## 1
Amino acid sequence: MNSVTLHQPPKIVFGTNTIRQLPDDLQSSGCKRVLILFTSPLRSVVDTLSPSFDNLFIRTQSLEYAFGEPTVGYFHSLLKEAREFRPDCVVGIGGGSVLDTAKLIAALLDSKQKTGDVFGKNLLSGRNIGLICVPTTSGTGSEVSPNAILLDESDSEKKGIISPFLLPDACYIDPVLMAGLPPKITAETAMDALSHCIEAYTNKFSHPVVDNYALAGIKLIVENLEAAYKDGQNLEARSALALGSMYGGLCLGPVNTAAVHALSYGLGGKYHISHGLANAILLPEVMKFNLDACPEKYGKIADTIGENTALGGIAKIKSLSVAYGIPQKLSDIGIEASEVENLADLAMRVTRLLVNNPKEVHRADAIKIYSELL
Ligand SMILES: [Fe+2]
């Protein structure tokens, strides 16, 4: 059995309307100046919380996140604004981009470290202020993971910062906040969460304790995506997806992802394809590539989602993304054959994830995987 280290937030609050507890909880933990980073569709949530903060004499500043996946430059612009307010706690309310940014603001707000110093694993020297994460999509699992990703514009590379200091002090996973997500985002983010679970379960460094999270997440996501896709207001389905996503996030610290994510980073970094969409396109093809390295694990995944064979399981996952309107080919999203070699070069640089893959991925393999998707 591999060894494993489990880092998780000390407090995970899960359930409908749990966001309402946040102001009282912040007061109990002694917070007096709270910076709230949010995306514009969540403004009404921030406005709803505002009177409670006022009543508790907690000073707040809202900072709108108005960008796609975060770049180093955009992060620095937000960090500058955050420093002017001098918060003692940062609350991120949004999807993975917002949460990753909130985590890094909290860690670097009064740090002497520069962003470039902390790319990689366990390089952050600490975090001196509070951090709360409130996810509003069911995808990245950032609220329970020690990871954050920034796009470095200098080399178009998506770079990870992995540190226990990026785990929030608490997260509030409230499915009500996900009810307004459009079907397209619901499907793409769910495929990201599904890929976290599958890549953790089939990981070279998998562990029985993480396998439990992974298999529970796979089952919840596959069984509930259709209902949440068809009716975003279905809170039972939203709760199940949120739980599946949380399980996927809990896999990221101890085991993390593998070739799907490594091959998707170039699509995000260079071609600005959204993270969920890139993973959704790559997932079935990478599963096919990995199948002979761990057929029994793919058999178990198939069994978990009601299929009899490993190949049947892979086909079912592909059929899910077809049913929810996710493009199946790189050519459908504007990636030409001439870009495959460059994508493979970018993927080969993501060694921190490639080492986790159950089967070694060479440049020629990456080229073949991308080419199958043209
Ligand atoms: Fe992901």
## 2
Amino acid sequence: MIASGRMGEAISVCEYVLNTNMELAANKSFLYFLATVLLRSGDPALTARCLSKVSQSAFEALPSEILAIFTELQRKQASAESSKDLSCVYSDKVYSVSEEYLKKTDDSQYLPVWKRVLALLKSINATSIVDIGCGPGQFAEFIKENLPYVHYTGVDFSSTAISQAKKRVDDKRFVFYERNVDELDSLDSFNADVFIFLEVLEHIDADRALISKLPPKSDAIFSVPDFDSFSHVRFFNSISQARERYSPMLSIKEDFEVKLSSSATIYLLYGTVKDFT
Ligand SMILES: C[S@@+](CC[C@H](N)C(=O)[O-])C[C@H]1O[C@@H](n2cnc3c(N)ncnc32)[C@H](O)[C@@H]1O
């Protein structure tokens, strides 16, 4: 993540390259950096200025994952949107081109996280779960294979994710809804005993407001990363930082560090929603 004090410098470097070096300005790595800086800046005028200097042929040569970020930037700029969250349009694009999300559950790099979640679900005798930001149904498929009695509801604002998930897990115990959870007043209507957020909260600026919509006393299981990505609004330097962020709304009961690689760790936390009534 570009530290806020460094954002001005990053913007200056981008503008300098765009104004002086056509070759570098068309380079894929530079354009990825530029897209990250513009997303983080949340400044539609800056975005318009910078995008007008990138050649059409440079855009056309980009891999679809990076092109999707620029399409999102153009959409935000056109609607003068300063939110740092990526939209459902971006998610739709990613799910229509991503191979990672089509992988079988056994081949996913997130399998160690899901195994840990499974152990937690078993230990609390979960019977009905809601998976917020469920994506195209990889975790749902894992649950179907490992918890034959559980009722599962997947929610995501990407219509592409929801239609892929429905095809992937065609079972009457599994239902999927296309919803933007930021627009819901409360999550009570989902009527579950456990709410799950896997790799979702770091994509949502108003993450704590979202947790506050959970029904009091329900269980919550969520994972957040210790690494940066252009699509992360935040990441965590330690598991205690993650505990601290969510402790005002959740009584955290257990936490786990799951290593994905030498440079990427997932913090998995389990807690109960505090009752302020
Ligand atoms: C990094 S993906 C994680 C997907 C899945 N949970 C997994 O672990 O594979 C984040 C997901 O959150 C969804 N999402 C982000 N903001 C959302 C919102 N406001 N409402 C509903 N879904 C949202 C995205 O569409 C995306 O599918």
